[in-house]
Amino acid sequence: MRRIFITAAAVITIFSLVAPSAGAEEVLGGPLLAKKAPTVQLGPGADPLPKVFAKTWVLADATTGAVLAAKGAHIQRAPASTLKSLTALTLLPILDPNQVYRPTRKVTSIYGSRVGLVPGKPYTANELFYGLMLPSGNDAAVALAKMNGGVKTTVSQMNGVAASLQALNTNARNTSGLDAPGQVSSAYDLALIARAGLERPDFVKYSSAKSAQFPAKGRGKTKTIYNQNRLLTGGYKGAIGVKTGFTTKAGRTFVAAAERNGTTLIVSLMGVKEQSAVAAQKLLDWGFANSGKVTPIGTLVSPVGDNNAAGAVPVTAVAAPETAPETTEGDSAASMANPTSTSTAGISVWSWGWLALFLFAVVAAFMGLRNISRNRRGRHARPGRVRLER
Hints:
- This protein is an alpha+beta fold.
- It folds into two domains: about 1-20 and about 345-375; about 30-345, DD-peptidase/beta-lactamase superfamily (Beta-lactamase, 3-Layer(aba) Sandwich).
- The protein is built from eleven helices and twelve strands.
- The chain has helices at about 1-20, 85-90, 105-110, 125-135, 140-145, 150-165, 185-200, 200-205, 230-235, 275-290, 350-380, and strands spanning about 40, 55-60, 65-70, 100, 125, 210-215, 220-225, 240-245, 250-260, 265-270, 295, 300.
- α2 packs across α6 and α4 (about 125-135) runs antiparallel to α5.
- The longest helix is centred in the last third of the chain and has 33 residues, at about 350-380.
- The two termini are about 45 Å apart.
């Protein structure tokens, strides 16, 4: 048995030398963004982070891209209607605001929140974008996609835009954000999308409007539609938008932005367990009060091909399952390595541990069988006893 343990120890030692460390994987935006617990680097005089009841969130400077604080930034979750910000960002450069579409009954009867499209009634893209961003109309989301050649075409373009932004945790399956198998995003990606949207005046126009006039049933009639963002409609100083969301699977999701004294902050939250506007306001208030007193923990990377902003080099996104458990702030995200990697650097430390344990069991079994075989051969080699008759 002594030989077994010596051999096993040697095997484990060898694999511990070749196995990568827990922080070996490159994390998009910076290694601290792999942490699942609230993470911040406070400087002198900085206030502690407020208590926010959300599964994941990111607070970032829209101008510099600096991530001031975060929790589970790269964890994938269902995005709900915050995905409509990607729908808008994709279609705004494509559709003519005056382009007209007449929806079918199938489009107008889609499940979930609706702006109230009437079958056969003409709507401009401009009107539909208001219907998309203010009351979060799923019917408007489908209608805009139909104007663009179909939902399938638009979803493919949305994923292309996400890839160009390096929003690598995002996979769109529809234009509305309704729960769908495989449809995911992350707080980090939603912040990237919002940042890109805020650079477009038309995106800001639609996402920051508190209300708008929308065609109603009946010729020449209109109705007032309202933004669901209570941070915006509640008069939060400097509020810009961006998008609310809720589904059974996603829970509350929320992306907001605000500008004060030349600084624009973005906050994205997923799995919110309190009022979304309250959670966002706590982080924005803290950010405006402490942005100059903290060291950024990471950065919102630039779109592919844009070399002007810092942090454009990392290319590996951390993507954890939606059911990833909460851990302490000191835990790393080695288990969330890029699943497409085939090198040994993509194997987690836990995987190496199980491999070493397996090899230990194999060696132990082999040594045990060899000892049994030796003992049997030894017994057969001994002269048999002579039985004496009385």
